[in-house]
Amino acid sequence: MGDPGHAAAVDYGPEEQAMRAYCEEGAQRAAALGNRGPIRFGADGRIHRDILDAYWRCGFYVFEGVLKADELADIEADIQDILERLPVRRGAPVDRKGRPALGADLEATTLYWARPLGDPFGGTELAGGRHPVKMFEPKAAADAPEEVVYLILGSVQFSEAVLRAYGHPHLLAVAAAVNGDDFAPFNEGIFIKEPGRGASVAWHQDGLTHWNSPDWDQGSHGFNFMAQLYGCTPANGVWVVPGSHKTGKADIRAIVAAAGTERLPDAVPIVCAPGDVAITNRQVVHGSFANTSRDWRVTLNFGFHRRKSVLGVLGGGLHNAPAVYDAARIEERSRALGFAIDARRQRFPDEIPYVYQPHAGKTFHWDAAAKASLKDYNLLDLSI
């Protein structure tokens, strides 16, 4: 995928050897955690207790082999089309073929740009200032563009294959096991880490709303699924500090200062094969380094909340304007999930579709009209 002319690894600079050693040691620490394997169900038909115990212990879990070869091929074709339709530069109305660019007719912000190998959020007040320390920014190749797209939000309106993955019955069963049968959607996105260009994401914890709530706990700000098209490695993947979702708001600036480096000594990489899907608690301290490797990472993010974490709550932030989330808004935002389940049913008729409890008695049919109705659906994202 992509242009092989820029697929060469980038020299990380004087600390290249230290970074390589850090990646190797981190992979060993990750392998020892015991938090990976296929999605398994217990005798009660629910997600196996061992999986949930490992998830809550570590703050993440890797589900192996969730997306099969035929589904990955569908996703890859759609991702290639999405990349072809990106604007030629930030704000441009057309793609490189002169066609209307992806997202050019939308009200919601869907495309996020960064300098190649840059860190667009670290050390800034963006996103509520939750990325307090800037990551190391290696020097990109001389022929790299001025900016690249590293994140696409509202992704299910751009790809039926991504929409179908969103409706995966086993993943939705996990969502119910973690957040309750009446779980609510959060947002969806595609992270793109091009070889030699992919931006870093500075260390942070997601969530702004519930840190000081009297009933705060380890799951108050929800989780993200991260489905991997090509897999991910220590060099291009997300790193997490296991267990940090349990201890409240972290002083990341102090943690980095104590370590003397942004290579946090307790962090581990999420390592996946193609088709693996990681679940990551949004409260865990996590981030990723600039992708100086030769490997692409394309990650489909699907976020979910407990209903009680969003119902009646004043939300806002990076994903939308401040608003109180009432039942009508949650219901409207959940339409995308209803369409996802039906789109998947049409593509994979041998599967048993997931039955989403809040949609009991309702019918959703994926067709051209439904697709048109998803335009700008992410203006209703439930960001907390």
Question: Overall pLDDT, averaged?
Answer: 94
What is the total number of structural domains?
Answer: 1
What is the name of the CATH class?
Mainly Beta
Shape annotation? globular
- Low-pLDDT stretches are 2-8
For the largest sheet, list the strands in their spatial order: 1-2-10-7-12-5-4-3
**Share of residues in helices:** 25-40%
Provide the CATH superfamily. q2cbj1_9rhob like domain
Report the span from N to C terminus: 35 Å
Strand content: 15-25%
* Helical segment count: 10
**Main pleated sheet:** 8 strands, mixed
Query: What name is given to the CATH topology?
Result: Jelly Rolls
Following the backbone from N to C, one meets helices and strands in this order, namely: HEHEHEEHHEEEEHEEEEHEEHHH
Total number of strands: 14
Oligomer, anyone?
Answer: single chain
Structural class: alpha+beta
CA-atom Rg in angstroms: 20 Å
CATH architecture designation: Sandwich
Q: What this model shows, in words?
A:
The structure is a single chain. The chain is of the alpha+beta class. It has a single domain (4-307), classed as Jelly Rolls (Sandwich). Helix content is 26%, strand content 16%. It has helices spanning 16-31, 49-58, 69-84, 160-166, 169-179, 252-259, 307-310, 327-333, 335-347, 368-373, and strands at 36-37, 60-63, 111-114, 148-153, 184-193, 201-204, 223-228, 238-240, 268-269, 277-281, 286-288, 297-305, 314-315, 323-324. An 8-stranded mixed beta sheet has the order 1-2-10-7-12-5-4-3. Helix 3 crosses helix 4 (160-166) and helix 4 crosses helix 9 (335-347). The chain is globular, with a radius of gyration of 20 Å. Residues 2-8 have low confidence and may be disordered.
